[in-house]
Amino acid sequence: MSASRETARRAARVAAARAYVLPLALLVAWELSTRFGLVNTRLLVAPTKVIAAAWRELQQGGIVTPLAASLARDLGGAAIGSVLGVLVGSVMGVSRRWEHALGPSFHAAKQVAIFAWIPLMSVWLGTGEVAKVVFVALAAFYPVALNTFEGVRSVSPSHVEVARVFAFSRVQVFRRVVLPGAAPSIITGVKVGLVYAWLGTIGAEYLLAAAPGIGNLMIDGRESFQMDKVLLGVVIVGAVGVIISAAAANVEARLLRWRS
Question: What's the rounded Cα separation, in Å, for the pair 258 and 14?
Answer without folding.
Answer: 28
